[in-house]
Amino acid sequence: MSGSNRNGAIFAFLAYTMWGLFPLYFKLLKAVSPVEILSHRVIWSLAVMVMILLVKRHWAWLWALRTQPRVVGRYAASTSLLAANWLTYIWAVNHDHVIDASLGYFINPLVVVMLALLVLGERLRPVQWVSVALAAAGVAWLTWQAGTLPWIALALAFSFGFYGLLRKTSPLGALEGLTLETLLLFPLALAYLGWLASQHQNAFLAASPGTQLLLALAGPLTALPLLLFGAGARRIPLSLLGLLQYVSPTLQLLLGVWLYNEPFAGPKVVGYVLIWAGLAVYSAEGWMRLRRRTPLPA
């Protein structure tokens, strides 16, 4: 592996590790409502984005959006999906559903495959159909055992899947895109925090300095893994990036089982094994196809 690839793998691994450890952070804010945490995440993330843009003197793209209403509209849609994903995840972690949240990100790659089929009209290869069928069987099994759909996992997987679909066809890069999304959410977040303050329910104003610092850290904790991911994605093959993405939900699952003692045994394991089998088939098939396409070095 070349030096560039090695650095790229490290950057991507660190990004997925940070995302996988997010439950540790949100659990520290369990006394704050998920909507208020989300509002602070938006506000402080925008502050970080603005500082980065100031350092880079990179503002021309934002001014150019004045004449691109369709681009702004597309990002308004992706912003709604991002907010729904963030809010669902925060709620799940702080209501002891870390394992269910991890399931959402395990099945997300297969949801993306289905969206490619249904929305983009792509054709699935036979092995991909097998992987999707195994994952669907796992979800069906979990639904039958629990008596209800695993809505947290499905909400996270589909909101992030559609979000990725919109971002895939959007003209802005990761830094510019997140800046615009947080900018669009900023008025709503600020208005909500202002309303809480008027009702004397703003947890930030009444919290200890430690809790206030934790809420302010939502900005850099959102921006840093994104920047690491962007740096890594540019340096390593998509196949390696696809394998590294399982670091995040694996860490979340381990935290849910071993640290937070959430139930994970018996019939529930069967559903997860089916889903993991689908992911294994999907990843192995993609890896082998890439190997066949890549010429051996002379």
Task: Report what the structure shows.
Belongs to the EamA transporter family. The chain crosses the membrane at residues 7-26, 38-55, 75-92, 98-120, 127-144, 150-166, 178-198, 210-231, 238-259, 265-284. This is Protein RarD. The protein has 298 residues and is mainly alpha-helical. 80% of the residues lie in helices and 0% in strands. Helix 3 packs across helix 9, helix 5 (69-94) packs antiparallel against helix 8 (151-168) and helix 6 packs across helix 15.
How do you describe this structure in short?
It comes from Ralstonia wenshanensis. The protein has about 300 residues and is mainly α.
Low-confidence stretches: none
Spatial separation of the terminal alpha carbons: 16 Å
Give the proportion of residues in helices: over 70%
Coarse shape:
globular
Biggest β-sheet, characterized? none
Structural class by SSE content: mainly alpha
Determine the mean pLDDT.
Answer: 86
Order of helices and strands: HHHHHHHHHHHHHHH
List how many beta strands DSSP finds.
0
Beta-strand residue fraction: under 5%
The helix count comes to: 15
- Rg is 20 Å
